Amino acid sequence: MNNQLLIDKxxxxxxxxxxxxxxxxDWFHIQRVYTNARTIAKGEKxxxxxxxxxxxxxxxxxxxxxxxxxxxxxxxxxxxxxxxxVDKAVISHVIRIMENxxxxxxxxxxxxxxxxxxxxxVVQDADRLDAIxxxxxxxxxxxxxxxxxxxxxxxxxxxxxMTKEEYKKTTAPTINHFYEKLLLLKDRMNTETGKEMAExxxxxxxxxxxxxxxxxxxx
Length: 219
Ligand code: ADP
Ligand code: NI
Hints:
The protein is 62% helix and 0% strand. It is mainly alpha-helical.
């Protein structure tokens, strides 16, 4: 099967898997990450099939969809890729990308020498870009609403030293999430293209926060 056919089949599979997913992690999130990944990949020496499959499958691994069991997503993805005869080495690489692309995982493995590859770096950047800027703001408040969080509470200060467990359990207002995660992402970008794109989206979030506080005080 040629690569484009493998990608098309994967798109159809992912769309079906993500039916009914919450707004921040739905098919359109995957579509944006896939688009970002292709843009970023143009400036990098990477295997484009691995990047495409990694971007398309990266959130099938999200344990939130599988009652916290982090092995379910990779298993589903592996079975699917086998069923369409993806090359064995590509399958293993995509699985490692899935296991390592999330921010929570990279938090957990802080300081560790974990798996990395140019393809993982592209997918990671593409996913991080979708957590910042206008889309990132929308996703954060969507998530906060889903969790019934306050928008903002001046009495609850951001916690910059959360463990993975605390990060999962936090009930802090959504504005705190900007300081705990979103504003940190631009300095974690791997690629040149990713860094440039992140810089613009970062500035947009700073402008948003400035305006938010002005309006909070009735200015
Ligand atoms: P990833 O896409 O890396 O798996 P998450 O699952 O942590 O990231 O988050 C998905 C989306 O929900 C992101 O846009 C993220 O910013 C947002 N989000 C996650 N945790 C919070 C939170 N505590 N408050 C507000 N938004 C959040
Ligand atoms: Ni994602």
